[in-house]
Amino acid sequence: LNRMDDAGVVEFNGVKTAFSTDSFVVDPIFFNGGDIGKLAVCGTVNDICMMGAKPLFMSVAMIIEEGFLQKDLLKISQSIAKTAKEAKISIITGDTKVVDKGKADKIFINTSAVGLIPEGVNISSVNASEGDDVIISGNIAEHAAAIMMQRNDFKFKTKIKSDCAHLDSLVQMMLKECKKIHVLRDPTRGGLAAALNEISKSSNKGIIINNDEIPVSKQVRAFCNILGLDPLYMANEGKLVSIQPSKYTAKILNAMRKHPSGKNAKVIGKIVNDKKNVWIKSKSGTLRILANADVEQYPRIC
């Protein structure tokens, strides 16, 4: 657990297996780009993928508030089935519980999954090494911005769409090109800043990222500027961080850009040994520390 990876890894008879569990309480349960069902499958599939594993089997459990609309339950269930089929993961067990009106907020979902790690793949936050490059797979902060916009009913002309997506096929493309990836991480709650700080702490290395290289869409940047938010701390649900030796970076980057979820992938930084923690470099070359947020910017984002 101290590694703070996205999934636990255990070995059975010489075969490495990744296991993860997650609970989803997002509000609203339907949002631009997805719903709580799609989010539950994608979130857990992605945690397994971040260990380099191929997701195989999943459980789904629902806690439902009395009076929840049957049509909404059907819509969510169909979304779960559709997303699991797309991600090629089998839902093999589950559970349903109903609680009294007012004892829950509409519906909560718990998912767990297992997957197999191919031979030769060893991915963990502790593996980040001096000289490694840091890649982000695309524009950040889209999920949090979409949830905030819909929850607060901001009257903006622009409708930001959540990036909610399963990343199994992207990761498989990356590993097919190169198995020497040191770290994979999906920057969900706490955003890119939290993910990098966890990696820095686990590996006891420093990370320097270039502010001008971090991809943020014009719509999300404008949204953040209006509300005084920092996209580095905002949740993503369809992005990943990849850290690998610099000699493999071009090969991995080329593979990522051939996939819809990696078309905007960019190198944003470097792992260093002479500094600890996470630092962000400005255009002028000055460094400031990118601290972990003391409190979550926005609750119930996933």
Annotation keywords:
302 residues; five-stranded mixed beta sheet; alpha+beta; globular; seven-stranded mixed beta sheet
Write the layout of secondary structure elements.
Blueprint: E1 8-12, E2 15-24, E3 30-31, E4 34-35, H1 36-49, E5 54-65, H2 70-87, E6 90-99, E7 107-116, E8 133-136, H3 142-152, H4 168-177, E9 183-185, H5 191-203, E10 206-210, H6 218-227, E11 241-244, H7 249-256, E12 266-272, E13 277-281, E14 287-289
Parallel strand pairs: 5-6, 10-13
Antiparallel strand pairs: 1-2, 2-7, 3-4, 5-7, 8-11, 8-12, 9-11, 10-12, 13-14
Major sheet description: 7 strands, mixed
Structural class: alpha+beta
- How far apart the termini lie comes to 21 Å
Mean pLDDT over the full residue set: 95
Kindly state the number of beta strands.
14
Major sheet: arrangement of strands: 9-11-8-12-10-13-14
Instruction: Assign a percent range to the helix content.
Output: 25-40%
**Which spans have pLDDT < 50 for at least 5 consecutive residues?**
none
Helix and strand sequence: EEEEHEHEEEHHEHEHEHEEE
Q: Supply Rg.
A: 19 Å
How many helices does DSSP assign?
7
Shape annotation: globular
Q: Strand fraction band?
A: 25-35%
